[in-house]
Structure formats: C-alpha cells, structure tokens
C-alpha cells in the first residue's frame, strides 16, 4: 500500500501504539508502505518527537542487522496525578459504602477509559523492570491485570479461588483470607506460567495482604520471581503484611456512621 | 502545546484511537495544539484518509455548534480471517485436550494482542448497533468482555456464580449448568447495570447455552435489552438452546482417543 508521508505517519504511529515493547524493523514498514527505508526513518523521527513532546511514550531505535524501533508507552506525572485525583473523588462518594464497611468499586474497574489510564500509571511505574507476566486473583483483579498487561504487552495469569475443569492440572497453596481470617486455598493452572518468569502482581484492593502473600508463595512453586506488587487501592486501616507495594489510592478511613470515605493518593506518587 | 502539522497529526490520531465512539469538538484540538480550527480540519481529513485506506476505522465529521469528530474502529475482512485462521490453528493443537474432552484455552484469552484482535473482530460485527454495555460471566469471559468493551468504549458488567460482599445488593437467577446439568444460581450487582440498557453478551465458550440463557434472563430482571451474543468458540457437538449468536471459532470434534481437535472458522465470517 502506497501512502503519502502524512498518511504513512498516521498508520505507523497507530502500529507502534498497538505494539508496545515490540521490536519492529524499519524494513517491515518500508515493504508494507512501499517506501525507502530512509523515508521511514524520517517518519519515525517525527513520530518520536511528537510522542515525546506529548508524553505518549518513547521510541528507541536499535541499529544493526537485527535492529528496528521499540515503542515504550509512558505517562506524564501531571496526567497521572490528574487521573488519580479524579478517581480519588469518585472513590470518596458516600453512596459507595456497603454494609460492613466495604466500598463498591466494580463500576470503576469495568470502565474502559479508567482501566486504560490505571493500566498506564501502573505500567509506567515498572517500565524499567523486565516483566514476563502480570498475575492477579479472580475475579475483581482480572480487568486491572488485563489493563496493565495490555500496556506492557505481556500475558496475564489468573489465580483462582476454586477448581475449574477447564484449567487442567493446577498447583494450590494455602492463604489467610483477609475478610474472614480463615485459611483458604488458591489455585493456578500449571500451564499458565513458565518457570523462571519475572512477575508483577496486581490486585484491586490491599487490606491485610493475605491474598497477595498467597500469590507470592505460588510464585516460588512456579520457580518464578516477584518484580513488584501494585494495587488500585490500599486500606490504611488494614494490618498489612506485604512489605513492598505501590498503590494508586489509599483509603484512610471508612466511617459507616457518618457515611464518609476518606481517600488520598497512594504511594505510587511518592 | 504548539506542534508542527506532522506532529499534530500523530498526536491527534493517537487521541482518536484511544477515544473510540466519542464525540470530540475540533475546538478541543484547536485549543490544545494552539492551531486554527481550519488547520485541525485539514489534519482530520488526512487522518481520515489514512485510517480508511488502512482499515483502522472511520472518522465521521458532525457539523454544527455541538459538532466534532467521532472515530469508529474497524477491521478488514482479510485481517479478521487471517487472525481467526491463526487462532484456529492454535486451538487445534493436540496438547490442549484435557481429561473429559475439554480444551485448554486460557493462554489465548490472557494474551493482550490476541484479546485486542478478538475484541476488534467482535466489536466490528456489532458496530451498527447501539450498545450501552457488554455482559459476561466470571471468570473466563472477563478478559474477552473487557476487550470488546475497550473497542466499543462502553462499560462491561460481570455476572458472578458466587455471592461477594463487595458487590452490594444483587439480583439472582437460576440457570442450567452445561457441564453438570444441575440448576445453579448466578448473581449480578444491582448497581452494575442501568435499566433500559442495550446489552451485548460475550463469553469464551458456547456449548449448551445454559450460562448465556441465564444472562439473558438476568437482562429482563434489569429491564434491559439483548443486542446480541458473541462467543470466542462454539462446540458444535453441544445441544445449543441459544437461537442467535456469533462465533469466532467452531470446534467440530474433540477426539480424546486420537488426541485430535477439529476447529473451523465460526459463523461470524458467514
């Protein structure tokens, strides 16, 4: 397909946005758009400048026979904070309080533009690490893990609290369920994670850390390494046993009587 | 931020790609990039041409005071078929067969670039319908519903097979569980779906249709309307009670003895 330069830049930038962290050779673009490699190289230079000036991300050029370009998405501090402040205000809405002092947040974590933005913020915090997979626990963590994995362009693995026939052989570990202090089991399909993987754990809410510690113990069963832990929100009243984690939001108080939730920005912004 | 035309086109096309089905006024871009509305209008014309020539999608210009541009993603028939053929070959790998004649597919439905493409194909099949929400059932349908919802830029709702404190009040219906022929219950949070919504149901696998019929009966509990049903794969040996659905893949035979899975393209390509 032969395109004009301006059109070519639009389609090449679309390609890069949809293939983050992937090496694409300039020849691929040159053949696809019937252009000289030198023209493609000039296109990339303009795209790189535009992406960097507007904090969309960075484009790295790798020279040599097996070279090409790699797009790494990013997000500016200002945009991250603005997104988190809007989410903080939404989380603090009094009608989210459920009996027992829980907060309803499923609506936020099932809205594409919110998920996309949260995924960008979390992925950005780990963009200098090599990550092979994102791990989460069913069900509420799944869309969040999916969003982070989309930006990092790696698969995600879903730990389950029940056994499903369609998962094949599984490995199980015990964990302390935060809400009830009971010992429960979590399961991961043996096929879902390769040995030696570097894994980022993502979850919606951190209270006592039982679920996350369960996932960390699963990692050693799979001879895999923990890169980090990131959560959408942490409850600062929780008795947290997770040493290192990054949170987007921190719930500092849930006052059921006064129908009030206090929410601050999390430690990912420190 | 003042940018050169070529750079402006890159960032405007990035914006449109990330805000499908959303009306954005030309003034928004004009102010953001300190350019005349007429220049933005020319940029959009070039982006529109590039998007259409490479089947990225369509840009509609709505004139008048409350006007602007709307980007609708699309995918060419050739690209859809190519993606589905690659997935068909992966689904037909003999090592996917699990005891009992089930197929392991969790790896496919947790790989971002596959999910993105499947989401594009399913969303494209319903792009002329007005859709307010995508519905699925936990856990395996979630990433797929998320992917379709991303393209349509609407929220998704997750029906659960268990009761969770953090969902608040729920509505439940009975359904016939396909795998065991037992009557079971599924639950949907009352807050998660507005009355009068037009809903697309998405699931990973269609066998007997019990789960999907359960979701359809939930829709009437929420005074909502079914727009359509789309599944990643259907099992043609199943005794399907769902009248209308679109499938990406069709499993025509699972032969455990000969360790063979036969897979064809689904009816979405008819």
Automatic annotation (TrEMBL), chains A, B:
<protein>
    <submittedName>
        <fullName>Pur operon repressor</fullName>
    </submittedName>
</protein>
<dbReference type="GO" id="GO:0045982">
    <property type="term" value="P:negative regulation of purine nucleobase metabolic process"/>
</dbReference>
<dbReference type="InterPro" id="IPR000836">
    <property type="entry name" value="PRTase_dom"/>
</dbReference>
<dbReference type="Pfam" id="PF00156">
    <property type="entry name" value="Pribosyltran"/>
</dbReference>
<dbReference type="InterPro" id="IPR036388">
    <property type="entry name" value="WH-like_DNA-bd_sf"/>
</dbReference>
<keyword id="KW-0804">Transcription</keyword>
<dbReference type="InterPro" id="IPR036390">
    <property type="entry name" value="WH_DNA-bd_sf"/>
</dbReference>
<comment type="similarity">
    <text>Belongs to the purine/pyrimidine phosphoribosyltransferase family. PurR subfamily.</text>
</comment>
<dbReference type="GO" id="GO:0003677">
    <property type="term" value="F:DNA binding"/>
</dbReference>
<dbReference type="InterPro" id="IPR050118">
    <property type="entry name" value="Pur/Pyrimidine_PRTase"/>
</dbReference>
<dbReference type="InterPro" id="IPR015265">
    <property type="entry name" value="PuR_N"/>
</dbReference>
<dbReference type="InterPro" id="IPR010078">
    <property type="entry name" value="PurR_Bsub"/>
</dbReference>
<dbReference type="Pfam" id="PF09182">
    <property type="entry name" value="PuR_N"/>
</dbReference>
<feature type="domain" description="Phosphoribosyltransferase">
    <location>
        <begin position="107"/>
        <end position="258"/>
    </location>
</feature>
<comment type="subunit">
    <text>Homodimer.</text>
</comment>
<dbReference type="InterPro" id="IPR029057">
    <property type="entry name" value="PRTase-like"/>
</dbReference>
<keyword id="KW-0805">Transcription regulation</keyword>
<dbReference type="GO" id="GO:0045892">
    <property type="term" value="P:negative regulation of DNA-templated transcription"/>
</dbReference>
<keyword id="KW-0238">DNA-binding</keyword>
<feature type="domain" description="Bacterial purine repressor N-terminal">
    <location>
        <begin position="4"/>
        <end position="73"/>
    </location>
</feature>
């Amino acid at each position: 397909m032969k395109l004009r330069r301006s059109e070519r830049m639009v389609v090449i930038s679309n390609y890069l946005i949809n293939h983050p962290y992937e090496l694409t050779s300039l020849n691929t673009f040159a053949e696809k758009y019937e252009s000289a490699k030198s023209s493609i190289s000039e296109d990339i230079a303009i795209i790189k400048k535009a992406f960097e000036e507007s904090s969309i991300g960075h484009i790295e050029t790798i020279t040599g026979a097996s070279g090409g370009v790699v797009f790494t998405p990013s997000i500016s501090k200002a945009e991250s904070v603005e997104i988190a402040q809007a989410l903080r205000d939404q989380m603090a809405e009094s009608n989210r309080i459920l009996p027992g002092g829980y907060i309803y947040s499923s609506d936020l974590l099932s809205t594409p533009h919110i998920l996309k933005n949260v995924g960008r913020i979390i992925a950005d915090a780990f963009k200098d690490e090599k990550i092979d997979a994102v791990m989460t626990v069913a069900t509420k963590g799944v869309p969040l893990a999916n969003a982070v994995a989309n930006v990092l362009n790696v698969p995600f693995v879903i730990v389950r609290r029940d056994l499903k026939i369609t998962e094949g052989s599984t490995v199980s570990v015990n964990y302390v369920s935060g809400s009830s202090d009971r010992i429960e089991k979590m399961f991961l399909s043996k096929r879902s994670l390769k040995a030696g993987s570097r894994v980022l754990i993502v979850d919606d809410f951190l209270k006592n850390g039982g679920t996350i510690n369960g996932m960390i113990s699963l990692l050693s069963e799979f001879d895999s390494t923990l890169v980090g832990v990131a959560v959408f929100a942490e409850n600062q009243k929780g008795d947290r046993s997770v040493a290192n984690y990054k949170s987007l939001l921190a719930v500092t108080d849930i006052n059921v009587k006064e129908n009030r939730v206090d929410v601050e920005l999390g430690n990912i912004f420190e």
